[in-house]
C-alpha cells in the first residue's frame, strides 16, 4: 500500500498547505520532490500513501483528513495586530501551529470535563465584564486579581500566571517564535479563553505582555500582538498597552517619582533603568508611561525614537566566555544521571510551557483513569519518562 498510488481529496491537500501558510516551493523542498510533483498531487489528489504520511507530518494534521469526502471549510482569518516597520506581516507556519496546538489543548480539557462529572472547568470570571475606558478595565482587573504595591513589585510572571489562571483563563508560553514576530496572542471564548506569551522575553517584559493580552480578553478582542515599537497606531493595541502599563505601575506613582526627582531629561537611560528596577517592570513600561503622560512629547519622541526603540527592544548580544568543554569518558552511572537530569529539565520546561492548570488537569485525568499514560505523553509531546518527572514535580514528590 505504501508504494501504491491512491486517491485523496485534492481540496484537502490544498487546504492543508494553505492553512499553515506554506507555498509550494517550501513544501516541495521539505518533501525533497519537484514543485511540479506537488502541483500534480494538488490537481489530481493522486499520490502514494507514504507521501500522505510525510505531508501530514509537515502540516501537523492527521492523515485521515486527506480522505475526507466533504470539502474543507476555510476559517476566518485570525485577527492580527502585528506590524513590522508599520506594515502588516503574514503569520509564519510556527505561529499557525502554536495557535492550532493551543486550541487542541483547550479541547482536551473540554473532553475531560465531558467524560468526568467531577472535573469542572471554572467559570470565566471576566466574561460578563463590559468595559469601555482604561479606568473601567483597571477597576475590573483589580477586583479579580487584587492589585497592590507589594504584588506589583514582587510578583514574577509565574506568580501572575497563577492568578490569571484562577480567572478561568488558560495561559501558555511558547518558545520557538522570535519576540519581534510574536510577543503574545489571545484566542477568545466565553469558556476557557487562551492567552499565549513568548517565553524568550525577560520576566519583566513577559509581565507586560501578559497584562496586555489580559486587556485583549477583557475587551473581547482576540488576535496576535507584537507591539515591537513605541509608535503604534492601532487603537486596540494602544489601549491594551495603556491598560497593561497602568496595572504594572499606576500613573500616580510615576507622577510622584517625577516630582520627587525633579526630572528634566525623560530619555535618560540611567533614569529609566532605575525606575524599571525599583518597580519590577521593563524599561519599555517606564518609557510608555512617560509617553502616555506627555513627559516625552511627540516632538521629542520623533527626535529620540531611534535611541529609545533601540534601548528598549534590541536585545544585547553577548558572546559566551565559557571555555570549551573537554570531553571525558563517562561511567554508566554518570550517563544515567545525565539522562535523569535531562528529563527533569524537559519536565520543568513542559510545565512552564503549558501552565499549571493544564498540567494539573491532565494529572487528574490520568489518576482517575480518564486518560492513559500514553495519552498524557502525547498531549504534551514528551516521553513516558518525562511524564513521571512532571507528576513528581507537580505533586512535590521526592
From TrEMBL:
Pfam families tied to this protein: Peptidase_M78
Domain IrrE N-terminal-like: 165-289
TM ranges: none
Name of the featured protein: ImmA/IrrE family metallo-endopeptidase
Amino acid at each position: 500500500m505504501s508504494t501504491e498510488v491512491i486517491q485523496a481529496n485534492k481540496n484537502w491537500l490544498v487546504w492543508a498547505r494553505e492553512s499553515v501558510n506554506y507555498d509550494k516551493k517550501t513544501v516541495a523542498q521539505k518533501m525533497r520532490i519537484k514543485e511540479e510533483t506537488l502541483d500534480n498531487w494538488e490537481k489530481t489528489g493522486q499520490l502514494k500513501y507514504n507521501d500522505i504520511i510525510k505531508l501530514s507530518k509537515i502540516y501537523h494534521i492527521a492523515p485521515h483528513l486527506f480522505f475526507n469526502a466533504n470539502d474543507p471549510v476555510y476559517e476566518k482569518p485570525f485577527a492580527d495586530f502585528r506590524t513590522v516597520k508599520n506594515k502588516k506581516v503574514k503569520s509564519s507556519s510556527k505561529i499557525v501551529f502554536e495557535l492550532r496546538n493551543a486550541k487542541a489543548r483547550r479541547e482536551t480539557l473540554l473532553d475531560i470535563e465531558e467524560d468526568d462529572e467531577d472535573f469542572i472547568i471554572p467559570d470565566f470570571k471576566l466574561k460578563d465584564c463590559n468595559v469601555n475606558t482604561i479606568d473601567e478595565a483597571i477597576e475590573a482587573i483589580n477586583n479579580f486579581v487584587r492589585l497592590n504595591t507589594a504584588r506589583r513589585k514582587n510578583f514574577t510572571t509565574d506568580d501572575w500566571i497563577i492568578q490569571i489562571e484562577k480567572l478561568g483563563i488558560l495561559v501558555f508560553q511558547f518558545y520557538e517564535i522570535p519576540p519581534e514576530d510574536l510577543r503574545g496572542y489571545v484566542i477568545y471564548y466565553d469558556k476557557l479563553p487562551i492567552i499565549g506569551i513568548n517565553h524568550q522575553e525577560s520576566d519583566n517584559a513577559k509581565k507586560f505582555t501578559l497584562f496586555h493580552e489580559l486587556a485583549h480578553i477583557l475587551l473581547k478582542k482576540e488576535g496576535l500582538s507584537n507591539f515591537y515599537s513605541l509608535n503604534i497606531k492601532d487603537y486596540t493595541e494602544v489601549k491594551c498597552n495603556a491598560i497593561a502599563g497602568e496595572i504594572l505601575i499606576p500613573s500616580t506613582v510615576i507622577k510622584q517619582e517625577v516630582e520627587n526627582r525633579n526630572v528634566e531629561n525623560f530619555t535618560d537611560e540611567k533614569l529609566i533603568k532605575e525606575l524599571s528596577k525599583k518597580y519590577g517592570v521593563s524599561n519599555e513600561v517606564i518609557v510608555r508611561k512617560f509617553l502616555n503622560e506627555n513627559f516625552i512629547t511627540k516632538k521629542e519622541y520623533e527626535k529620540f525614537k531611534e535611541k529609545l526603540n533601540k534601548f528598549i527592544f534590541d536585545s544585547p548580544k553577548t558572546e559566551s566566555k565559557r571555555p570549551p568543554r573537554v570531553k571525558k569518558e563517562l561511567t554508566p552511572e554518570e550517563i544515567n544521571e545525565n539522562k535523569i537530569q535531562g528529563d527533569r529539565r524537559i519536565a520543568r520546561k513542559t510545565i512552564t510551557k503549558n501552565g499549571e492548570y493544564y498540567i494539573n488537569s491532565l494529572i487528574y485525568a490520568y489518576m482517575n483513569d480518564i486518560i492513559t499514560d500514553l495519552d498524557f505523553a502525547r498531549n504534551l509531546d514528551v516521553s513516558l519518562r518525562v511524564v513521571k518527572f512532571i507528576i513528581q514535580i507537580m505533586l512535590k514528590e521526592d
